[in-house]
Amino acid sequence: MTEDVQKHSVHTLVFRSLKRTHDMFVSDQAKYIPLDEQSHKLKMAVKLKADYGAVLHMPILKEVKERVPQPTSSMQLQLGYAQPVSDEPEYTITGTHAYPSGPGVALTADTKIHRNPSEAGVHSMALALPPSQASQDASRTAASVPEIHRHAGATERSHPPSTALSLMESGGTRTSALMRRAPTMPKPQWHPPWKLFRVISGHLGWVRSIAVEPGNQWFVTGSADRTIKIWDLASGKLKLSLTGHISTVRGVAVSSRSPYLFSCGEDKQVKCWDLEYNKVIRHYHGHLSAVYGLDLHPTIDVLVTCSRDATARVWDIRSKANAHTLTGHTNTVATVKCQAAEPQVITGSHDSTIRLWDLIAGKTRATLTNHKKSVRSVVLHPRQYTFSSGSADNIKEWMFPDGKFIQNLSGHNAIINTLAVNSDGVLVSGADNGTIHMWDWRTGYNFQRIHAAVQPGSLDSESGIFACTFDNSESRLITAEADKTVKVYKEDDTAVRMDCFGLRSRYFLR
C-alpha cells in the first residue's frame, strides 16, 4: 500500500513539474520581448555622442532637411547639444558637373541644370566649421541626427550616397566624390599553355616520386613496384633499374653535392645509393613506420625524412647519425622541404598543420593552422622568399620567415598530392582525380586545366597525379601518375595570345 502511495505522489509531482514548465516557456516562445522606448532612446543618445560626436557640429544638407524630420528638443537635451538657430539663407551644395547622360539614365529638370553654390552658402559653410579644423574637415560630410537614428543598427541596409559634394576651401575648390570603387583583380601575367609531349611506360605499379639530377641529363622515379628507375631526360629511354626496397618507394632525391641518390619507402627504410657503383652504401635506421618523403639540405650534408610515425628526422649523411627528431605533429608527416635560409625545414602533415622548424635547436618555430584538411605537399618558390601548400580545402601561399598568409588559390576541388613551381611564376597542382591545374603565382589566376587520358589498359579511376616537378631548364614538366606512366609536358610554342587591343601575336619559347 505504501509503495502505491509513493508511486502516485511521484507521478503527480512529475506531472505538475511538466505542466509548470510548459506554462512558463512554451506558451510565450513565439513572442518577442517588447522594446522599451526610454532605454532605446538612451542607448541611441550614448551611441550618437560616442561614435559621431566629432561630426555632429557639421551642417545639414538642404535635401536631408526636407527628407527627414528634425530632432526634438528633448533629444537635443539628451545629446548635450542644441541645434544652432540662425537666419542665414539655406544653401545647396552640388557637384561640379551636371548629371551624366547615358543609356537608361533619364534626365529631369533638376539634373539638367548645373547649379553652383551661392556665395551665402559658401560663407555659411565656412562659418560652420571651426577655423582650426577647416582644412581637415573639408573633405568630410556629416549626416544629420535623424539620419544617424534611422540607420543605426542597419548598416547592411544602407547605401553609399550617390551625390557628389563640392566643399569650398579658402583659396580654391575641392571636390569629394562619395563613390566606392569596386575591388579590381590584378592583371595576371600571360603564360603559354602546356601540352603533353611524351608518355613514358616501364613501371609495373603506381609511380609515387620523381627527382631530376642537377646536370639535367636524367631523372629518377620511385614506384609501388618497389623499384627505382633512372630515365634519360632527352629521349625518355630507361637507363637503369635499382632494386632493394621491399615496399613502395615514396621518395627520391639526387644530391647536388655528391654522387648520391637517396630513397625512402613504406618499408621504413631510408637508403643512400652510390651512383658510381649503383648499390646501397648507407642505411638510416630510426623511423617506426612508413617513410613518406625526404629532402636534402642545399648547403650542408644533412638529410631530412618524414614518416607516418608523426615525426621528421634529421640525419647526418656521412655518419648516419640521427641529429634531431622533430616531434610535434599529431598525425602522419606527409611532406618535408629544406632551404638554406631560416626556417631551414618546413613540414606538412595530415593533422592539417604546417610547421616551420629551427634546425639548430630542433624545435618548432611556427605552426600554421589555416588548413582544414591534410597538407600533403609543400613547395618553395625558387626566387621569392615564399612557399605554397596544397590541401583538399585550398592551395595557400605563405611568406617566410614566420609563415605570413598571402592568398588562397581556390578551384582545384580534389585531394592535392603534389605542387611544383618555376621561376616564371607558374604553379602546378596535381590531384588524386588525375587533374592538373596551372596557376599564376602572383595573382592566383588559374590559366589552364589538364586532364590527360589514362594509359590504355588502366582503369579510369587510376588517373591520380602523385608527384610532379620541373626539370632544371624549367621547359619541361614531369608527372608521376597512377596509371604506371611518367608524362612529360612542354610549353606550347605555337600558342597565340590576344593582347589588350585584341590583336593576335605569336608567342615563341624563350
Automatic annotation (TrEMBL):
This is Pleiotropic regulator 1. One of its GO terms (biological process) is mRNA splicing, via spliceosome. SUPFAM superfamilies: WD40 repeat-like. PANTHER family: PLEIOTROPIC REGULATOR 1 (PTHR19923:SF0), WD40 REPEAT PROTEINPRL1/PRL2-RELATED (PTHR19923). Identified in the spliceosome C complex. Component of the PRP19-CDC5L splicing complex composed of a core complex comprising a homotetramer of PRPF19, CDC5L, PLRG1 and BCAS2, and at least three less stably associated proteins CTNNBL1, CWC15 and HSPA8. Interacts (via its WD40 repeat domain) directly with CDC5L (via its C-terminal); the interaction is required for mRNA splicing but not for spliceosome assembly. Component of the minor spliceosome, which splices U12-type introns. Within this complex, interacts with CRIPT. Also interacts directly in the complex with BCAS2 and PRPF19. CDD domains: WD40 (cd00200). Keywords: Repeat, WD repeat. It comes from the Eukaryota. Belongs to the WD repeat PRL1/PRL2 family. Involved in pre-mRNA splicing as component of the spliceosome. Component of the PRP19-CDC5L complex that forms an integral part of the spliceosome and is required for activating pre-mRNA splicing. As a component of the minor spliceosome, involved in the splicing of U12-type introns in pre-mRNAs. GO terms for cellular component: catalytic step 2 spliceosome; precatalytic spliceosome; Prp19 complex. WD repeats lie at residues 200-241, 242-283, 284-325, 326-367, 409-449.
